[in-house]
Amino acid sequence: MQIWLNDEAYSPKTASDLLALVSELSLPEQSVAIALNGEIIPRSQWQSTPLTEGVQVAMFQAIAGG
């Protein structure tokens, strides 16, 4: 399967949902926001939101600073 992750083609190794994708990418779950096809997905729905062929995933990490 191939998805679009931050506008780049990506083939998940084992991830089949958003929570698994965050884990596969070794990202800190609490500092990531995810949009799927342009719609923000609440963290509570990551595990129940499957990855599908060609889906557009945008991930944003919180950055401290000022």
TrEMBL record:
Pfam families for this protein: ThiS
Family matches, as NCBIfam families: thiS (TIGR01683)
The protein's name: Sulfur carrier protein ThiS
